[in-house]
Amino acid sequence: MRLTKAEIAGLIPHAGAMCLLDGVLDWDGQRVRCVAHGHGDAANPLRYGGRLHAIAGVEYAAQAMAVHGALAGAPAQRPRAGYLAALRDVVCRVSRLDDVEGELIIEAERVMGDVRSVIYRFAVGTEAQPLVTGRATVILDAAKDRP
Description:
Elements: E1 3-4, H1 5-9, E2 23-27, E3 31-36, H2 57-72, E4 82-92, E5 104-113, E6 117-125, E7 130-140
Antiparallel strand pairs: 1-2, 2-3, 3-5, 4-7, 5-6, 6-7
């Protein structure tokens, strides 16, 4: 594993139980591949009605995107914050994630972007199959533009 949960927590704004990723398996300038184990945990903060619905996979993917932005950008260019602005082509192939056996693999690939926004393609699933896929647009450092 290239990065641990503790190292990830130092890169993204999510703290405590809201840091959903347990490790970074590999990454380069265009993509990141992460792993998570807590999707079956009854204390997962994204559970609703005792279940972790598949759409929660978007948050796993968003955290992988945040990790990628922190790792791939030069220190002076790293965004302080990113805001999920749009989702496209999201497909949930299961209804829930809490009953998925084994670990989740979260992949995010930067499709395009600049200093103001970025588009990622993402997949959350097992080694055998993607369970939640889609594209996300993230606005970077939106607070800088406020008067």
